[in-house]
Structure to design on (701 residues):
């Protein structure tokens, strides 16, 4: 798998029209390895044949339910899955997520939201396969970050990152383009019960900017979103 | 129970008043009778005057004219000398003896002479004896000890006091007995008012009442079950319908989104596809709110309470709007007070998220030209030393505001549940806000629209304890 579009996706739903529509949406997004099944029995056959990288499962199926199907497949292999169901009860959602599914989306859904979530799951699961280089490091503007050695190179100078700075930066890189809340960053560094570290977080961010930004007082990459958190700007 | 005590107090008071009134009335009647007959007796007791008018002359004894008038009240009269001989008489029947011994005199002076009631009076020359009509007077010897007569006043007081004490005692004893037997009944009625089932012992003087109350309780219980079953059926029906709508609606939304993004369509057609998408999203939100509101209404959605940090939750909610591509027309700001950061609440995160998403979504949906949503979180301190008691959240926008009639519908606190239910059905467009109110109030919080010049300002208070 070189890019997420290469992922083999198994779609299981008893409604043919919905399967067709989902296939259409995913095809348009560039996902070309799609396999569909309308029942548990069919899903098992397709699973054996295609060995999917990702599954989208309905809960209500004519010959069983998606939960059991998911548990069956999970026993064989730890592949990511998303439940897409008309059952909106809290207990269904909690049960599905409790089984270890990566997400639970209730119908009706927004196409864009579904695609965002699929991409997120695939990126997260196959990060090391898709971007081995990103695991090792990344480029932020003029700065080259090496996660393994915790070093930032910029304009010929090298700066070491502290463990906390590294944790913050990794979290921002993982969610590049999105806002990461103060809470998520603090949790990444100090774990649960991080209350009171918000000011310390600001200090670490300032240090990070000094190492990465051209002009730390006017940051272009590590951006503050007032009252909410920080965002690492996307590569231009 | 207070009312029962009051009833008992009134009962004892009334009984006392009745008894005392009867007592006073009897005394008054008795006094009246004594006075009336006393005066009549006076008329008759002219015997002394008769004695005065009977004078001894040379021609023997003579009764004056006025004496004769006086004597008309009597049947006969005679005068006895000290030897017991009749020395004067008036209309004395023939069969009467003309001489009486001392024992005879002693006997008739107290009782009767030949069945005539007799009155005697001391005359200068002997004893004047007057006979009254037969059967007109009942004679009974009465004799009282002197101590009794002199002590009569205090004896009467004592008797009266004893009477009143006895009456009071009976009143209290019966009152307490009555109170005791009414107590379980009153408790039963109180429980009925609280919609609790009752089963009272059906015996004693209140047995019949208890039986009726038990019967009422059974009827209420039965009705409650019927209503609960109907509510469950309705909620299940809504859940079922909303479930069945979901898949077809997914298709409508999926294809309309695709059409809206299609490059080979004309602008007008794309716009139409976008409208279908937007309307489908409205239906999606509506069925979700409808489902939730019916579950909350009939307590079929238990609160899954857990401890959480409200500041963190709110940041997540706001950030999810930005990360999911919030249109540039909109801006959502969050301002969290320092003391709120440390605050922990106990609540259903899913439901509260839904409530805040509904509020923010409402601001975004109804202001297509764009607006700024300002969310502020403050902790209200009644005492600076104590932990905060209330979390205050304001969701404010500078958009077109919520129509006054919707605010009225949602704010009317004096309205009954039934009334709210009716409105909920008659105004489906307030469903989203109605769900917010339900969620907030089920967490013990309050929900209030503040009066501002432009836009909407909703103030929410959560208890922290």
């Amino acid at each position: 798998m070189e890019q997420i579009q290469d992922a083999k996706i198994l779609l299981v739903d008893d409604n043919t029209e919905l399967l067709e529509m989902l296939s259409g949406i995913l095809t348009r997004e560039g996902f070309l390895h799609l396999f569909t099944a309308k029942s548990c029995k069919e899903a098992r056959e397709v699973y054996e044949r295609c060995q999917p990288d990702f599954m989208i499962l309905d809960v209500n199926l004519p010959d069983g339910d998606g939960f059991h199907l998911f548990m069956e497949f999970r026993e064989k292999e730890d592949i990511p899955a998303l439940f897409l169901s008309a059952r909106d009860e809290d207990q269904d959602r909690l049960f599905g997520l409790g089984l270890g599914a990566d997400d639970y989306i209730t119908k009706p859904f927004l196409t864009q939201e579904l695609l965002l979530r699929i991409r997120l799951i695939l990126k997260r699961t196959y990060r090391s396969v898709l971007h081995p280089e990103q695991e090792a490091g990344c480029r932020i503007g003029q700065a080259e970050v090496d996660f393994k050695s915790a070093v930032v190179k910029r304009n010929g100078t090298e700066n070491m990152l502290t463990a906390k700075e590294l944790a913050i930066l990794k979290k921002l890189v993982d969610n590049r383009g999105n806002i990461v809340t103060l809470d998520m960053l603090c949790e990444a560094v100090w774990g649960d019960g991080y209350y009171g570290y918000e000011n310390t977080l600001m200090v670490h961010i300032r240090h990070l900017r000094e190492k990465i930004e051209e002009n730390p007082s006017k940051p272009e990459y590590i951006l503050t979103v007032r009252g909410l958190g920080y965002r690492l700007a996307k590569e231009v | 129970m207070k009312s029962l005590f009051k009833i008992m107090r009134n009962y004892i008071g009334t009984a006392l008043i009745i008894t005392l009134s009867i007592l006073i009335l009897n005394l008054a009647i008795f006094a009246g009778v004594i006075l009336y007959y006393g005066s009549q007796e006076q008329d008759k007791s002219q015997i002394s005057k008769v004695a005065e008018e009977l004078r001894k002359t040379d021609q023997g004894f003579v009764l004056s004219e006025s004496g004769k008038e006086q004597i008309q009240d009597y049947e006969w009269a005679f005068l006895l000398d000290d030897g017991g001989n009749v020395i004067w008489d008036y209309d004395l029947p023939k069969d009467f003896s003309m001489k009486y011994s001392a024992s005879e005199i002693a006997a008739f002076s107290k009782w009767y002479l030949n069945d005539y009631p007799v009155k005697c009076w001391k005359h200068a020359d002997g004893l004047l004896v007057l006979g009254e009509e037969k059967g007109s007077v009942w004679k009974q010897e009465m004799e009282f000890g002197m101590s009794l007569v002199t002590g009569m006043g205090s004896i009467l007081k004592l008797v009266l006091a004893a009477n009143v004490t006895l009456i009071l005692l009976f009143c209290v004893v019966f009152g307490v007995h009555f109170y005791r037997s009414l107590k379980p009944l009153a408790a039963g009625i109180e429980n009925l008012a609280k919609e609790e089932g009752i089963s009272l012992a059906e015996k004693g003087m209140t047995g019949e009442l208890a039986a009726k109350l038990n019967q009422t309780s059974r009827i209420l219980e039965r009705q409650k079950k019927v209503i609960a079953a109907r509510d469950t059926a309705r909620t299940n029906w809504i859940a079922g319908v909303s479930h069945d709508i979901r898949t077809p609606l997914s298709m409508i939304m999926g294809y309309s989104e695709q059409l809206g993004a299609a490059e080979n369509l004309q602008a007008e057609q794309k716009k139409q596809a976008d409208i279908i998408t937007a309307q489908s999203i409205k239906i999606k939100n509506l069925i979700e709110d409808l489902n939730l509101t019916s579950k909350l209404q009939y307590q079929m959605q238990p609160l899954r309470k857990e401890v959480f940090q409200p500041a963190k939750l709110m940041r997540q909610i706001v950030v999810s709007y930005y990360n999911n591509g919030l249109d540039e027309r909109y801006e959502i700001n969050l301002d969290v007070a320092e003391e709120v950061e440390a605050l922990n609440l106990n609540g259903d995160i899913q439901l509260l998220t839904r409530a805040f998403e509904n509020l923010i979504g409402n601001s975004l949906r109804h202001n297509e030209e764009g607006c700024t949503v300002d969310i502020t979180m403050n902790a209200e301190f009644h005492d600076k030393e104590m932990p905060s008691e209330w979390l205050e959240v304001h969701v404010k926008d500078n958009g077109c505001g919520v129509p006054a009639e919707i605010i009225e519908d949602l704010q009317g606190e004096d309205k009954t549940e039934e009334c709210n239910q009716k409105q909920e059905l008659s105004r489906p467009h307030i469903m989203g806000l109605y769900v917010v109110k339900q969620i907030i109030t089920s967490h013990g919080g309050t929900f209030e629209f503040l009066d501002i010049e432009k836009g909407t300002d909703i103030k929410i208070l959560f208890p922290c304890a």
The first helix of chain A runs from residue 16 to 28.
